[in-house]
Amino acid sequence: MAKKEHLNLVFIGHVDSGKSTTVGRILYETGAISEQTLNKLKDEAAKVGKATFEFAFVMDALKEERERGVTIDISHREFETPKYYCTIIDAPGHRDFVKNMITGASQADAAVLQVSVKDGIQPQTKEHAFLAKVLGINQFAVNMNKMDAVGYKKEEYDKVKAEVEKLLKGIGYKVENVPFIPCSGYNGDNLTKKSANMPWYTGPTLIEVVDTFKVPPKPTDKALRLPIQDVFTITGHGTVPVGRVETGKMKPGDPVIVMPSGVKGEVKKIEMHHQELTEAVPGDNVGFNLKGVDKKDIKRGDVIGPATSPPTVAEEFTAQIVVLNHPTAVSVGYTPVFHIHTAQFAGQISELVEKKDPKTGQTAQAKPDFIKTGDVAIVKIKPLKPIVIEKFSDFPPLGRFALRDMGQTVAAGVVLDVKPKVMS
Fold first, then answer.
1. Helix residue ranges, H only, 60-120
2. Rounded-to-integer distance, Cα 30 and Cα 88, Å
3. List of domains in the chain
4. Between 123-134 and 154-171, two packed helices, what is the crossing angle to 10 degrees?
5. What is the DSSP letter of 16?
6. Global confidence as pTM
7. 181: confidence class by pLDDT, cuts 50, 70, 90
8. Minimal CA–CA distance to 225: which of 299, 283, 290, 297?
9. Are 328 and 348 in contact (CB under 8 A)?
10. What's the order of all strands across the beta sheet hosting 5-13?
11. Which string of DSSP letters, residue by residue, matches 314-370?
């Protein structure tokens, strides 16, 4: 049996739009979870008074999430379509979880934006769609969920679809290329099989749409960049960092360096989904052992690269940002929290270089005093701690970021240039 190509799919959208339920249902229908697992989850859901949440429980593995009925961190699950082997990333919809969503979306090849037809466009629907665009996700589908809650009516679907199209057009997506699927995550309408409840819809099911997505070419010719998501201590294995290969390749025996600490080590063993790999390539979520690297020398947000081509630690960097949502104005000295690949850091805006016309990309104003919501600008930023940052043109996943402040995403952007820190 030929190995299927691997696609990373992220589910984004407002809290309570039914993402976890939809994903759980897909996993069940594609045979990724068994009937007995589902029955067990059904009992657990009933016990905590969440009778319709059994599918959501598949993804929401954390106890706290089950009790609150919300998704907190990003969870990964695999399933197969006729064409692809998919890793589903279920990104949280809650406001305070947007930073988790950023690390989730920056790993995705394609996104499914979930909108509840019952509730229409919600604040996070906008925020997530915009982030997906800034983070470079150019292929996605819109899953119009909870059709069962509106009696499977075409007019309800059409009404919300028009709102979503308007929103996506405003962000710069070509709406004619975006498929919309009316579905019910809870009942399974139009997820893996055509629904008899909506004879008016003749388009593809969600799974058929997923198979139209393209896997981006793997940047294997670039130097290795692997941002660390987590570091575990596993009995018998020692220190096991976990992360996703963004560019390049990693093989056992490779001499690597951990930045920003500069600690060097050698790759011993690489595993993905409990199977040993002889080589990890872009898109692979892997756990691995490093010889010569102690648990205290490596943490979430660090980046692994070849000893001969270390990841860049930034003294300062120049970026193009879009101010999404700031109550007043942003000026020099502003110090929000930046989220980039798996890292977060406080960074200070050291210079406002220019304001651009968002429609033409031309300079609208050089050296503005401030920028506000809706502005596109070139700025310089000084990280307040050593952090790996790469140019978006060299290493896209390590060159896009979000700025957060006051519990919300204030701006998002891409790195144009980096002034490297002189490492002593």
1. 63-68, 98-105
2. 13
3. 5-210 (3.40.50.300), 226-306 (2.40.30.10), 314-420 (2.40.30.10)
4. 40
5. T
6. 0.63
7. very high
8. 283
9. no
10. 75-80, 84-90, 5-13, 110-116, 140-145, 180-182
11. EEEEEEEEEE---SS-B-TT---EEEETTEEEEEEEEEEEEEE-TTT--EEEES-S-
